Amino acid sequence: MAVDRDPSLDTLLDLDGQVLVVDPETRHWVRFVVRRVPVSEERPHGIEYALTLHGPDGERLVGFDNAHSVRRQTGPGGKAGQILDHKHRLKTIRPYTYRDAATLMADFWAAVDSVLREKGVIS
């Protein structure tokens, strides 16, 4: 299975292991875990990733990852599938369509901003 070269992937891979404080007063922080893995049906982009925003108590508020499969649809009839890419926002989990590393980072930061605004951390 061939994968087109993603020019933004190196930037995302460089963030692996980084922990950044996004608001020192309220102690909200983000963490990046990104590594190359063999290209597969489950991970056609060849990376395993977890980009997360945490509150002062360590609770995950936002997360984009591909660590486990998620339901394709909600409700009792929702079927678990082989969709690994997904996003967590507060208490919800939804499938995420991975396009490329740049879009993943932009979508993650947009979700971080949205949650921080909703919680009154930023205006």
Structure write-up:
With about 120 residues, this protein is of the alpha+beta class. The protein has one domain (about 10-110). The protein contains 2 helices and 6 strands, in the order H-E-E-E-E-E-E-H. It has a 6-stranded antiparallel beta sheet. It starts with 8 loop residues before the first helix and ends in a 5-residue tail after the last helix. The mean pLDDT is about 90.
Query: For the terminal residues, how far apart are their CA atoms?
Result: 45 Å
The stretches of 5 or more residues where confidence is low (pLDDT under 50) are: none
Widest beta sheet: strand line-up: 1-2-3-4-5-6
Number of strand segments = 6
What is the arithmetic mean of pLDDT? 89
- Structural class by SSE content: alpha+beta
H-E order: HEEEEEEH
Number of helices: 2
Summarize the biggest pleated sheet. Answer: 6 strands, antiparallel
